Amino acid sequence: MDVNDHAEELASDLGVDKEEVAADLQNLLEYSVPIDEAKQSVRRKHGGGSGGSSPTPDSVDVDEITTDHGNVTVTVRVLTAGTRTIRYQGDDITIREGELADETGTISYTAWQEFGFEPGDSLTIGNAGVREWDGEPELNLNESTTVAIADETVAVDERIGGDRRLADVRAGDRGRNVEVRVLEADEKTISGRDGETEIREGVVADATAKLPFTDWHPRPEVEPGVDLRIEDVYVREFRGVPSINLTEFTEVTPLPDPVSVAEGAPRRSVADAVASGGMFDVEVVGNVLEVRDGSGLIERCPECGRVTQGGQCRSHGEVDTEDDLRVKAILDDGTDTVTVVLDDELTAEVYGGGLETALAAAKEAMDKEVVADTIAERIVGHAYRVRGSLSVDDYGANLDAEAFERASDDPAAAAREALAEVGE
Ligand SMILES: [Zn+2]
Q1: CA of 402 to the centre of ligand 1 (A)
Q2: For the segment 131-183, what is each residue's pLDDT rounded down to a tens digit?
Q3: DSSP one-letter code for 167
Q4: Does residue 191 share a domain with residue 109?
Q5: How far is the CA of 309 from the centre of ligand 1 (A)?
Q6: What's the rounded Cα separation, in Å, for the pair 130 and 344?
Q7: Does residue 414 share a domain with residue 294?
Q8: Has this prediction a pTM greater than 0.90?
């Protein structure tokens, strides 16, 4: 249903002019108010009461729900229930969110008020709104939604509860519980929407992965070396990788036994690492196919650090540029390719000299490209083991290297081995 369909339905329910209703709805939608909230608001404005006169919608299976549905009734099992405060129309409101499932599938939900259900509960949810979130349908539970215990337990294949290994969390996950060792933690002041805010940032690890975290309600007990069970976190993408977010609702409990932490980074095939949508700490082995433009001796904006072209920064215009060294190399392991980015130190290692050496070589040749050419001669066609943080965006996959070493392994064999490990 589009705005016009909703407006037509509301206008006929309320007995008012459709154009007026459509204008009210459009105005609310421009402020990103979900369609169901917007309709409730328009109903109230025209004295229609909160429930409206629509009959209770038909029961549907979860896998039948599409973003074309207005409202639905479902009988489901609660898989997860996270708690979070969001800023909504200028007010802080506490919402609950997570996943629901029946035999046919799972769906995310947001509850705009407290219904009191917990993971494992079987429920019949009446008149839940459907909205599109990230291209998928999501259920909106609001004041016109009814929630009742279902007559029978809803059998589902999915895991009930939010416990996950770090390797299995994904951006967008909510209501997750993790058991981790804190590796790094630092207090930081950021300028947020309410002025200066103290947060705590760092890195946590378990046997499967390492991930960055942010505690928005900074807890001093989240300190390096401690082993913790952390309940009710949400996961969002931060610089292209999943990041664990703690809120005021998150519960942190010390664990009696130490959490085992993987020594090295998990080895993945390039295809697997890219398919995961981003990994904070991963190792791949592949052949360097090519050194890309923008490698070797480069110039950066002193304000923002962006690489400049002809002394021009995209944000700051003409600037006094700073020289730097970098490599962007295309690595292929037979499953896929990734652009490996080496910082100044790793570049100096593969080049065999630092900035001064590079500047001298460029001066002598009267051409900056000689630096990139030398680097290409040394690394193209050779196999490398690369460890770092992999991010994926619209332009492709980038691996910010922390380690870049010649590998004796055959990359294709290494990729097959990594695939086999994942399959276990
Ligand atoms: Zn700049």
Answers
A1: 25
A2: 988 789 999 999 999 999 998 999 999 999 999 999 889 888 999 999 999 99
A3: G
A4: no
A5: 11
A6: 50
A7: yes
A8: no
